[in-house]
Design a protein that fits this description.
Order of helices and strands: HEEEEEEEEHEEEEEEEEEEEEE
Low-confidence stretches: 1-28, 160-171
Helix content: under 10%
Number of strands: 21
Shape: globular
Structural class: mainly beta
Distance between the termini: 81 Å
Length: 258
């Protein structure tokens, strides 16, 4: 018995791999680690914000597509960030952690990698919804934030899997994901073919404060640094229309509406 106890105590004293379980008697959110600045406000779901500078901050974009058998396939593209499922519950380290999915603002699932299958049963259990949000968190469950705003991305569930378009059909609406960093536009500016009457969603993220402008439609939106902004409008006019930023005078893309 003494030998067994010594083995147990010895194993506890050694530094092993990080665990996904919380220590007994501790809260779900321990808010540990000295990186960034821990704010008193939370992300709306009870997790405090951990604010960092926009430069080098974690980033995420979100894409969804109907699965051929059931539900949706969700893809998270991250930058300045990596998923660390083995250290969840530990102290916050910059650029590490996990993601959470929200459906119309309600918690849905925790994600530890770039891909996640969202079954129809989970959507029904959550009461249904159309707006899916992916938000990045540190290992201590605090939400990464820039400018007091959580680092997140949102995508619309625009069709049910049962009525999803076939490969020969056009998906409803066009969504363009654009990022601006260090004065460069990604992807490189090109031309997007749009059908007249189609819904256009411009999802733009900039590393500095700026203004988004769609020429010809006179659509504008403010671009706060480090936040993803979605500008939605109906392409009810034909022609060639440039999308640019006002303050930095960058061409983001050209819309060809036919």
């Amino acid at each position: 018995m003494l030998t067994a106890a010594a083995l147990v105590l010895g194993a506890g004293a050694c530094g092993g791999r990080a665990t996904t379980h919380h220590k007994p008697g501790t809260s779900h959110e321990q808010a540990t680690g000295s990186v960034g600045r821990l704010l008193s406000s939370d992300d709306g779901s009870g997790h405090r914000l951990r604010q960092v500078d926009a430069k080098g901050a974690p980033e995420v974009t979100l894409a969804v597509r109907p699965d051929s058998e059931d539900g949706w396939n969700v893809h998270l593209s991250v930058r300045n960030f990596r998923f660390t499922p083995d250290s969840v519950g530990g102290g916050a380290l910059l650029g590490r952690g996990h993601a959470r999915l929200f459906l119309d603002g309600h918690p849905l699932a925790r994600v530890y990698g770039a891909w996640f299958h969202l079954p129809e049963s989970l959507l029904r259990g959550a009461g249904g919804g159309t707006e899916l949000t992916a938000r990045l968190y540190a290992d201590d469950h605090t939400a990464w934030a820039v400018g007091s705003t959580p680092v997140q991305a949102t995508a619309a569930l625009t069709a049910t899997p049962a009525t999803a378009p076939t490969p020969t059909e056009s998906a409803p609406g066009t969504t363009l994901e654009i990022s601006i960093r260090d004065g460069k536009v990604s992807p490189a500016p090109g031309r997007a073919e749009i059908k007249k009457g189609e819904t256009v969603r411009l999802r733009v993220r900039s590393d500095h404060d700026d203004n988004l402008h769609v020429h010809g439609y006179d659509k504008e939106a403010r671009l706060p640094a480090g936040r993803t902004v979605t500008l939605t409008f109906t392409a009810d006019r034909t022609g060639l229309f440039e999308v640019e930023t006002h303050e930095s005078d960058l061409l983001l893309t050209q819309l060809v509406v036919r």
